[in-house]
C-alpha cells in the first residue's frame, strides 16, 4: 500500500489505467503479501518489457521428425544468440540454418532451423524465437535444458503463450477459445467452426453489440444530465428504445440456435437403446470398428453405459451403448436400466434397436415395440429417433420389405434394416445418421457464427435479462434503466475479455497445453 501511495498514477493516470483510489479498493479486499496483491502491485510497477522470458516445446511430446521449441520475452534474442553462437540475429521472420549449441559446454546439440520474430510483430507481441530441431527425445531434452540454464528464462505455464497474446491485444478472448478448439478439433466440422471463431467473427459480433449498447447508454446518460437544458435532439430516447429492442431480438435469436455450436464443439450425444439381446452392443462395435463392448447371447450382459467417440460425416459423435430396457429383479441390472433411461433423457439422437425377427410387420405392433423402448417420459419429444431393425439376416424372404412398408404406413421414425453380423444396411444407417447430424449442427461456415461455450450462453442470457429489465425501468426511473444497459454491456464484455475478464482467465487458459 505504501508503494501504491507513491505511484505516479496517483497524480497522472495513464490511458486506460485505474486511479490509485480504485486500486486501493482492490487491495483492501486482499490479504497483505498475498499473490493476488503482489500481482496488482506488479501490474503497476513492472513494465511489460521486464517480464520473464518463457520457453516450451510447442509441437507436442513424443518422437517425431521435427520438433518446434518456442521462446517469448525480452531475453529471446540473447537466448537465440547464445544457442547459435552468432553475434547477429537472423533476419526477422526468415528461416536460417544454424548449429545449436549448449552455451555451458559448447557441445553441439543439433543442426536445425531458427526463426526470429521481434516484437510487436509476433504471436505474443513480444520478442519471440523458434527452434526447429529433430524430434528425438534426447535432442529436445538437451535444447530445453540448455534454455533453462540461461539467465532470465523459465519454462512456460500451460497456455502462457496464448495468455500473453491476449494481454498484448493480439487475440480477443473468443479468439483464444477458438484457437484452443482448433488445437483439439478432431473432425472437419469442428475445424471449420474453430477456425471461423479464431479469425474473430464471433468476437466481432459481440463487439458490435457492445458498441451499440455503449452508444445507447451514452444517449440515455446524456438525456439524464442535459434534458433540462434543451440541448438534445428530440426523440433520443425513442431511438435508444428501438436500438435496444433490435439488439434484444438479435441476442434472443442467437441464443435460440438449438445449441449447434456447443454440440459441434463437444460432440452430438447419440444413445443406442432397446430391449435385451436386440444387438445394441454389436451395433456399437460395428460403428466403432473395434470390440468396444462385450457381446454375448446372455440377456442383460451390458450393465453400465459404454461410450465411444466417433467421426461420422465430419461431425463429432459421442456414441453410448446402454443396458437392455426391461423389468428385472437383479439389483445390478436394475441400476444399469436406470442409467440407460437417464442417458435417454439427455440424448441428442436415439438409435432405437429392435430385433427384426421379434416384431410383426404391422404398424401397430411396431409402434408398440418402439413405445416400450422409448416411453413418453423418456424423451418428451426432445431428441430425434432412428429405428434400427437389426438381425435382418435372419428374416424370411420378403419380410424385410413388409417391415419397412409397415413403418411407412405408421409414419414411424426414420427406419433402416440392418444386420450387424453381415454389415448389410450399415451404409443406410450412416446415411440417416449423417443427415440428422447435418440438420442438428448445420454448416459452421454459413450464417451467423454460433456460440460455442456454456459461459457464452450464461452471459448472453444475463445480458438479455438486463435488456428486458431496461424496458421495465425506463418509465419508472431512467437511472435504473441506464444501469441495466451498463450491466448488459458488462456481460458482453466478459465474453470478449474487454471488461472484468480477470476472474475467468485461469479457467480459459488452464485447458491449453504447455507451449501453446
Automatic annotation (TrEMBL):
Names of required cofactors: K(+)
Record-linked SUPFAM superfamilies: P-loop containing nucleoside triphosphate hydrolases, TrmE connector domain
Keywords, in A-Z order: GTP-binding, Hydrolase, Mitochondrion, Nucleotide-binding, Transit peptide, tRNA processing
Superkingdom of the organism of origin: Eukaryota
Catalyzed chemical reaction(s): GTP + H2O = GDP + phosphate + H(+)
Pfam families hit by this protein: MMR_HSR1, MnmE_helical, TrmE_N
Locations listed in the record: Mitochondrion
Gene Ontology BP terms: mitochondrial tRNA modification; tRNA methylation; tRNA wobble uridine modification
Entry's Gene Ontology cellular component terms: mitochondrion
Family to which the UniProt record says this protein belongs: Belongs to the TRAFAC class TrmE-Era-EngA-EngB-Septin-like GTPase superfamily. TrmE GTPase family.
Record-linked PANTHER family: TRNA MODIFICATION GTPASE GTPBP3, TRNA MODIFICATION GTPASE GTPBP3, MITOCHONDRIAL
The protein's role, per its UniProt record: GTPase component of the GTPBP3-MTO1 complex that catalyzes the 5-taurinomethyluridine (taum(5)U) modification at the 34th wobble position (U34) of mitochondrial tRNAs (mt-tRNAs), which plays a role in mt-tRNA decoding and mitochondrial translation. Taum(5)U formation on mammalian mt-tRNA requires the presence of both GTPBP3-mediated GTPase activity and MTO1 catalytic activity.
The protein's name: 5-taurinomethyluridine-[tRNA] synthase subunit GTPB3, mitochondrial
Gene designation per UniProt: GTPBP3
